[in-house]
Structures are given as structure tokens and as C-alpha cells.
Amino acid sequence: MAQVEGEALVLRLVAGGRLLALPMQATGEIFELARENLTVVGSLPPGVLGLVNWRGRPLWVLALAHLTGHLPAVTARLRLVLVRSGDALAAIAVDGVEGVFPAEEGGEVLDPKRLFDPSCWGVQAANP
């Protein structure tokens, strides 16, 4: 994790009424997107909101509230946080961004790899 004087740092987020956190080195830009700029693709599971064009690259937009057992809020604008795990990149929709905190003050720290597991979002693996 990113550190300042020996402390691991996280980005504290609000989603589905819970405080969650991501290691700083797994996060990128934070930006807002008008919902009309989101491309909905077919019948998506509730945790997958659609695709967004980010600097010429299509990214899945995932609702972090889904991981808390809540439905994502329906708003005109989405607050998105870019998340990386290895070469994988996605945008997660959050209810709020509270800032950078020491890991012990950040809330439940999520493993970024978990966010790229399709089963977290209700995506069924295809049968061979």
C-alpha cells in the first residue's frame, strides 16, 4: 500500500451506506459522468452498470454498492473511481469519496483483485 512515514494509505469511499476503502496504489482518477454517457450493453447483472469511454478505452462501470448488498443509487451523474489490479482497469461507481486516510481509519479495505472477479457482480461463467 502507499505509505506516508510508515503508514499504509487508502482512499475511503461510501457505497451502499458503508465505509469502504481501496489501497491508494490501486486507485486512479476520480471523476463524474452524466448517466446518459454510460453505454448499457444488453441485459447486465445489477452490479454492472455499463461501459464508459475513458480516454479512448472502454471500461466497465461497476456499482460498488452491489458488493454491500444494496442496489446502486439512480442519479443523473455517477461518481467514478478508476481501479487497477495488474493490467485490469475498471471504473467503480460510489456514493461518495471521503479522502485519503491511514488504512486503520479507512473502513473495510477491499482487495482490488476481488473487484475483477466476475462472480462479485453477478456474472455467470459460461459453460464450455
Question: Briefly, what is this?
Answer:
The chain has 128 residues and is mainly β. It has strands at residues 3-4, 7-15, 18-23, 27-34, 48-54, 57-63, 77-85, 88-94, 96-102, 108-109.
Can you describe this structure?
The protein has 128 residues and is an all-beta fold. The protein has a single domain (3-121), classed as Beta Barrel (OB fold (Dihydrolipoamide Acetyltransferase, E2P)), CATH 2.40.50. The chain has strands spanning 3-4, 7-15, 18-23, 27-34, 48-54, 57-63, 77-85, 88-94, 96-102, 108-109. The strands form 2 sheets. Strands 1, 2, 3, 9 and 10 form a 5-stranded mixed β-sheet that branches. Strands 4-7-8-6-5 form a 5-stranded mixed β-sheet, with no helix packed on it. A hairpin with a 2-residue loop joins strand 1 and strand 2 (7-15).
Based on helices, strands and strand pairing, what is the structural class?
mainly beta
Count every beta strand, where a strand is a DSSP E run of 2 or more residues.
Answer: 10
Molecular shape: globular
Overall mean pLDDT stands at: 87
What is the oligomer described by this structure?
single chain
Second-tier CATH architecture: Beta Barrel
* Terminal-residue CA separation: 38 Å
The major β-sheet equals:
5 strands, mixed
CATH homologous superfamily classification: CheA-289, Domain 4
Element-level helix/strand string: EEEEEEEEEE
> CATH fold name, please?
OB fold (Dihydrolipoamide Acetyltransferase, E2P)
Radius of gyration: 14 Å
